[in-house]
Amino acid sequence: MAWFKRKEKGIQTPTGEKKDVPKGLWYKSPTGKIIDTEELAKNLWVSPEDDFHVRIGSKEYFEILFDNNEFKELDAKMTSKDPLNFVDTKKYSDRLKDVMSKTKLNDAVRTAVGKSKGKDLVVCCMDFAFIGGSMGAVVGEKIARGIDYSIKHKTPFVMISKSGGARMMEAAYSLMQLAKTSAKLAQLAEAKIPYISLCTDPTTGGTTASYAMLGDINISEPGALIGFAGPRVVRDTTGKDLPEGFQTAEFVLEHGFLDFITPRKELKDKINLYLDLILNQEIR
C-alpha cells in the first residue's frame, strides 16, 4: 500500500514525535461559533461572531475595571470554616481544601479597591468556580467589610454577582448573609455612597434575593441568567410552560427588574458614566 510508505510520500515526521493539539486552544460558543482562545481573551472573553459572553471570574473583571490592573485586595486571606461538621458526598472541610487547591481562590468572592478611569472604586466580584459561586458566611462578611470600606473612605461600591445561591453546607449561617448584606447596603445608602450591581451569568437564589437586586442602578451583561429559582423548578412548581427567553437578562429588563444591559466591552465606561450621573460630576 503506497500510502503506508511515509518516506516515499514525503512524510518525514516520526509517528512518535507527533503531538495532539493542546486542550483549550479553541473555544466553541453555544451557537456553534469557534474562536481561537487567545483572540477570545483579547476580546474580553466575548465571542465576536455571536456576542456570546463567556463566564469569567474576578481576575478578568479586575483587569477590565481597574486602571492598569492595579488594585489592593481586601481581606484576601479570609477562609470558610465548617461550623456544622457538614457531610454530603464528602466532608465540607475536605471540599473546601480541594476547591481552594484547584481554583487558587480562598472563597467565592474577592474584594478590591483601586482606580477606575482615575477615580477610586471598591469592587466585590464573585467567582463561580468556587463551589458554584455559593454564598456562605465568608462571602457575606467580605461584602460587608467592602461596604464598610466604601463608607469609611466615601468610595463608590460595585458588586459583580455570579452565583448559584446560598451555600447549603452552611445552612442558616449562609441564609443570615441575605439580611446582613442588605442591612449594610442600607447603611451605604444612608451615607449617600453610590452602589452599582452587575448581574452576570448566572445570578440566582439568595444572591438575587438580596444584594444583587438592591443597587442604585442594576445592570447586567447580555444573555445572563437572572432569577431566584431555576427555570425547571419554576416550571414544575407552576405546572405551566415558561415564556421564551424566561429569566434571561433581556426578559428581566423588559419586566422592569434591570435598568440597563451593558456589553462587557463597554462595562468600564458605562459604570463610570453611571457613577458620574449619580454623583452629579462632570461626565468625561
TrEMBL record:
<comment type="similarity">
    <text>Belongs to the AccD/PCCB family.</text>
</comment>
<keyword id="KW-0276">Fatty acid metabolism</keyword>
<dbReference type="Pfam" id="PF01039">
    <property type="entry name" value="Carboxyl_trans"/>
</dbReference>
<dbReference type="InterPro" id="IPR000438">
    <property type="entry name" value="Acetyl_CoA_COase_Trfase_b_su"/>
</dbReference>
<keyword id="KW-0547">Nucleotide-binding</keyword>
<keyword id="KW-0067">ATP-binding</keyword>
<keyword id="KW-0443">Lipid metabolism</keyword>
<dbReference type="InterPro" id="IPR034733">
    <property type="entry name" value="AcCoA_carboxyl_beta"/>
</dbReference>
<dbReference type="GO" id="GO:0016743">
    <property type="term" value="F:carboxyl- or carbamoyltransferase activity"/>
</dbReference>
<dbReference type="GO" id="GO:0006633">
    <property type="term" value="P:fatty acid biosynthetic process"/>
</dbReference>
<dbReference type="InterPro" id="IPR029045">
    <property type="entry name" value="ClpP/crotonase-like_dom_sf"/>
</dbReference>
<dbReference type="InterPro" id="IPR011762">
    <property type="entry name" value="COA_CT_N"/>
</dbReference>
<dbReference type="GO" id="GO:0003989">
    <property type="term" value="F:acetyl-CoA carboxylase activity"/>
</dbReference>
<dbReference type="GO" id="GO:0009317">
    <property type="term" value="C:acetyl-CoA carboxylase complex"/>
</dbReference>
<keyword id="KW-0275">Fatty acid biosynthesis</keyword>
<keyword id="KW-0963">Cytoplasm</keyword>
<protein>
    <recommendedName>
        <fullName>Acetyl-coenzyme A carboxylase carboxyl transferase subunit beta</fullName>
        <ecNumber>2.1.3.15</ecNumber>
    </recommendedName>
</protein>
<comment type="pathway">
    <text>Lipid metabolism; malonyl-CoA biosynthesis; malonyl-CoA from acetyl-CoA: step 1/1.</text>
</comment>
<comment type="function">
    <text>Component of the acetyl coenzyme A carboxylase (ACC) complex. Biotin carboxylase (BC) catalyzes the carboxylation of biotin on its carrier protein (BCCP) and then the CO(2) group is transferred by the transcarboxylase to acetyl-CoA to form malonyl-CoA.</text>
</comment>
<keyword id="KW-0808">Transferase</keyword>
<keyword id="KW-0444">Lipid biosynthesis</keyword>
<comment type="subunit">
    <text>Acetyl-CoA carboxylase is a heterohexamer composed of biotin carboxyl carrier protein (AccB), biotin carboxylase (AccC) and two subunits each of ACCase subunit alpha (AccA) and ACCase subunit beta (AccD).</text>
</comment>
<dbReference type="GO" id="GO:0005524">
    <property type="term" value="F:ATP binding"/>
</dbReference>
<feature type="domain" description="CoA carboxyltransferase N-terminal">
    <location>
        <begin position="24"/>
        <end position="284"/>
    </location>
</feature>
<dbReference type="GO" id="GO:2001295">
    <property type="term" value="P:malonyl-CoA biosynthetic process"/>
</dbReference>
